[in-house]
């Protein structure tokens, strides 16, 4: 079969290797060399996949003619080279594929027509919980518990490995998906036959963007979009603006890559980069090593960008070599990007960006972020005043709404140690943002060493933990002799995976938890992760601060967040003198002296080969075989979802929605953490009652994340967050609403009553609806609760597309209109007028509101089905039925 050759771009490099040449496209009359590097990498994929069906020649022309500032109406069909999954999102995705195979088998077709068309790697990293901490046995005990809790899920993953040809699993205990991706899965350049092309991907974790630090285009999508990508559909997105961030200077002594990442997050939030590509360039960017670039790239979801991208240069080559990639492959990688004209970090004036923002790295100071949002950066020396101030600030202003005089008066005695407001109860060096960066991990180890040598002791009420992002971290902490000092301060390794940052922080000691609840304490957690939304880290810890690993150790020793570490002592040393942060903070030179132990190619090669042999517990897990999964009706972990019940080849029709009732009315910044089932399952919640009714004891509830393969649990847990505030109940916290009878009940029970009566449901919300992790269940649960429409003031990118992907209509209020300005209380009936088969992307529609007294108000709203392909998805009832009909039709 001959290869397509649009604009005569199929060329050769390095002795006959084929590639689709961007310089050749420039010769065809497009000013490609002025385009941002990130746009050029997407353009290569459009060029290479131009088949006249999924990708048209007009798509190439549109993207090659990208202008820095113009209306963004064209959608890009981006066919990615591979897909990466973590297990919380990967299991339900595999469940959906299994359900598709069941649907195809029921139609009398060959189930093997459902097969991922690109390589898929699933890393099991979200299932480990910090049940045990502060002891040498913690890691083994946590791993044992993980395997016993998740045996059924792991059996199912093993079925997937044998059923699908292109589906591979990295077993538990290896590392977190982003670090495994960076250190092992990423190749930089790939080939099919003799055609070479850039490594590109999407992942089902929003922090997939960490890979942007090594010049690879990739970002987080919902599981729904990832499934479509696996099955050969392009990932569609609107042509983005690209904000160039011009970095100059260098970080000063005492400043870490984490401080830089938090500074960039705050700066980019102010720049308003939601839905845009951010591309770093200039001498400051060129001087940063890949590990620092990746720390900044990881935080892209926190600053709202689709990507935080660093172009390709010699630092990338250095990193590939240092992490054990094959020398011949590295040479091809370098030759490929030079042939494409994509080698080197651009300097000022070389690229046309939509906007340029400048940052001098020399102005960055030690920082933390919190207490409720990652973009709320606080200079370290101002944390005490900020925290004390937020204590009595109203909740609406990101405060805690307490009386100021309570701050210092409420205390509880726990085994001789006093805890109160501001006490640090969780200190976690947790996987993700920072653990892939040896500079901050070694800094944490060096600080621990100096602290121990000074005679500082761990605070007994603080639950401290270390969850390295991969086993490589343990290797270099051992080689540098720093592990014993971290151990001595309570930072024993608890496991390799995503722990505290996603709410897998495990329980606090019972007396501590009882005191927090009894006195309603505003206690704190300190963590080196990227997310600190309310009730995410731990349901009873209200103040959560993001910071560098060495600062996590320092605050664990201090035991409180209401401290100015620039002037107040952390504690008292052996000699009876005060010890200050500056006394134990490692210098840049001290960190550099240890760095040569960190990136040893042979260590990476050894630790990233033959996972099965290194993981006897994984080998013990049995697996079923066959192309179609035998769902067990009694399982409380894996159930066949209802998405393909009564599936037929005929799509539905788009019609007006009439007589809808409100299931919830919410304010601003309702995140997917508020919507999606996450963390612990309460006994009294609808999901808890379901599990008890099905014979599961409370001790075996596990987390919502581990039960994502069971829609019965997940639907009951949607909108069940203990901190969500439904304005239909006057802003009262918890997952309740008013039922059809006007009486307060759980959102799930109200939904069931409304669905029984055939009443469609609507959600109304404020700004930034759906920010947070890319959680498919936030959209799937919304759909299964019978919600047909979500009207918000603005939407987060992934969640908006996920709603459409599940057949839920997103509508946007016009500027100045809110649920509050309309004085909505949930007693109204709603119609969506103007919705028809002829609806156009981003068209204006009318929301007709009929109040209890019979009065009617018509409100103009924008349809946030953004692209033509999304109209198709919506008509088919979602992306999955659309793709399944296409596959069956082709077969």
TrEMBL record:
Classification via Pfam families = Aconitase, Aconitase_C
Q: Which keywords belong to this entry?
A: 4Fe-4S, Iron, Iron-sulfur, Lyase, Metal-binding, RNA-binding, Tricarboxylic acid cycle
Q: What does this protein do?
A: Catalyzes the isomerization of citrate to isocitrate via cis-aconitate.
Task: Write out the GO biological process terms.
Answer: tricarboxylic acid cycle
Which pathway does the record list?
Carbohydrate metabolism; tricarboxylic acid cycle; isocitrate from oxaloacetate: step 2/2; Organic acid metabolism; propanoate degradation
Protein family membership: Belongs to the aconitase/IPM isomerase family.
Reaction(s) catalysed by this chain's protein? citrate = D-threo-isocitrate; (2S,3R)-3-hydroxybutane-1,2,3-tricarboxylate = 2-methyl-cis-aconitate + H2O
Ranges for domain Aconitase A/isopropylmalate dehydratase small subunit swivel come to: 689-815
Cross-referenced CDD domains? AcnA_IRP, AcnA_IRP_Swivel
Single Gene Ontology MF annotation? aconitate hydratase activity
Q: Which InterPro entries match?
A: AcnA_IRP_Swivel, Acnase/IPM_dHydase_lsu_aba_1/3, Acoase/IPM_deHydtase_lsu_aba, Aconitase/3IPM_dehydase_swvl, Aconitase/IRP2, Aconitase_4Fe-4S_BS, Aconitase_4Fe-4S_dom, AconitaseA/IPMdHydase_ssu_swvl
Which source organism? Answer: Oleiharenicola lentus
Entry cofactors = [4Fe-4S] cluster
Supply the PROSITE patterns for this chain.
ACONITASE_1, ACONITASE_2
Chain ranges of the Aconitase/3-isopropylmalate dehydratase large subunit alpha/beta/alpha domain: 72-559
How does the record describe its quaternary structure? Answer: Monomer.
* EC number(s) stated in the UniProt entry for this protein: 4.2.1.3
Name it. Aconitate hydratase
